Amino acid sequence: MLILGIDTSCDDTAAAIVEDGRKIISNVVSSQDDIHKKYGGIVPELASRRHIELIWPVVTESMKRANISFNDITAIAVTNGPGLIGSLLIGVCFGKSLSFVNKITLVAVNHLEGHIHAIFLEASPDFPFIALVVSGGHTSIYRVDDFGVYKEIGRTRDDAAGEAYDKVAKLLGFGYPGGPIIDTISLKGDPQAITFPRANLAGSCDFSFSGLKTSVMNYVKKHPESRKEDISASFQSAIIEVLIDRISDAVKVEDVKRVVLSGGVSANRTLRERMNHRAAIDGFELFLPSMHLCTDNAAMIAAAGYHHFIKGNLAKYDLNPKAYLPLVSAAG
Fold this sequence. Notes:
Blueprint: E1 2-7, E2 13-19, E3 23-30, H1 33-36, H2 44-66, E4 75-81, H3 85-102, E5 105-110, H4 111-117, E6 129-134, E7 139-146, E8 149-155, H5 161-171, H6 178-185, H7 210-222, H8 228-254, E9 258-262, H9 269-282, E10 285-287, H10 291-294, H11 299-311
Parallel strand pairs: 1-4, 4-5, 6-9, 9-10
Antiparallel strand pairs: 1-2, 2-3, 6-7, 7-8
């Protein structure tokens, strides 16, 4: 069973062919980093215009690499939210058009759900497990009891972790995307040089990073002579400590001994190292996708779409994108 996945939720145009929700046949991602880096962040209008130019070539390339035609595709899985509305619109309209013209079943996939399903392209964690989705637009914790069965147990109340990385990187003059740059520069700094605040929301697994971002900004203004390496390392240490502590809390509250990391920030080397260390201490099993499956891609959308298809959760042609789309348990 071959699923064509399409994702245009933000600034990456992606298409993939996945067999039976597990095996990647092809996975093509076209990045827009060169377009947006001079602005220090994503410009939505430029992103959506670029998707228009790239969507057909990217889908065509994914099918060429898989050596298949539309007659071989069982279903088309497309991201309909959350994300940038203009970007989502391109992918949804394109997916609906392909479905209609080629008479192929269409399924809609929540982008967050896709990130959670990325792990199943490489591993088979038993249910239930705790999933941390941490990226430029999202920082949330879910309990996952089965395919399509989710319970949100924590989320950011303001900035996402990846968003904080991008804003601090811009503040320090590092460019975009901020996460990989700060991760690399932090290796040359002292993570204990500066004590930045860690938000502790008592009795909750929620996050808050706006105060940390503001604290870094105020520190830079007061101490312009400070080494950027130390600022970066201390900022990153604060982010990672909070992420790991909230996961540890969720494991205890839910009494679940399996954890899956996903989203672009989960590619952070320091986070992966320290999360492995905490897993050994707390005694939970940790699942980490490969780097290329942490960031936005369409293989994860196809993997999630496969399970929607076999459960009969199909989309109609009145499907519309939604910039805000909470992840809830699927029907079927």
